[in-house]
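Illustration: Fe2OG dioxygenase domain-containing protein.
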Amino acid sequence: MATTFSSLPIVDLSILSEPSPPSHSLQDLSRKLSDVFSTTGFAYLTNTPLGFSHNQVFALASDFFRLDRAEKLSVAKRTFVGGNTNDYRGYFPTQPDQLDNLKEGFEIGSVQAPRQRALVGRHQQQFNLTEPNVWPDEYAFSAGKEQLETLHQELQLLSTTLLSLLAVALGKSQDYFASYLTDSLSTLRLLHYPPQPATSQTTTATGPKLCCTPHTDSGLLTLLHQDPSGGLEVLNAEGQWVAAPYVPGSIVVNIGDLMAHVSGGRFVATMHRVRASTGSCGRADGMGRFSVPFFFEPGEECVVRSVDGGERVVYGEYVRRKMDTWVEYQDVPESRADAGAHSGVVLEVC
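Result:
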């Protein structure tokens, strides 16, 4: 469990933008990341070596969600539009009957889809983790498609660098986790929480109104672009929800369940949620809340063990078991999707 803390630490990554970072500086950064992930499990990353500003990232999200509903539903997952063939990548619409999970989203993987493997049992028809990305017709040859693919590539590279630093912190070589990333399933997710009526309450009889329910993430690392509307809260060891407000220019990073396992419990996957603000799940300017998480994941066939031995986990089997509990992969009548009455993943959505 995370330790007692009242705010999230800030980790400066400016050293990673240098052509040849000094080894002692990288060692210092490795120790800093180890300390953060052994205590809070969360941090703000500043001065990241990315080619996109926050404004550019959220402009990409805004452009997608401004598409006509028919365009978005043309790439909706088969759970929501039965005539579509994509199961794992693509769009999911809002879910008004889930009042603490009001969002729509769009997900892409790497530009080069991972190698497909033979699927067995009921999963053969249910979903394919290695399916290629799907795009609305308007994106077929657009700059937006190319930019989103580039953003995915840059976040994958940054996450890989952070993973190598964590390997050193765990007493391993920098390339210790390199094999994990063969055919990586990492996901870039664009999320939009539409504004709710001004009469909406921010508290209920059981506690605060939530845009995203308490959860931990499944994979190795999550890198999150959050917008100024804020609402992210992280649970400390005393059971207190600590606000993680927007810090201009920063990316929030947190450990996932799998990385906690890999570290032998040294790193912590911390519970977090998103709280509604100003009577809605969104900004006071009426535009709604945008969130762009990147889920850094190994390949489907990756065999994961903790650095001190421990239980063997095949990532594809592990994530499929979790997917069985996600709303996105339950049987949903197509008519509900047509009415815009269903949404996506319950976990990992902030």
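Reading the tokens back as a structure: The first helix runs from residue 23 to 39.
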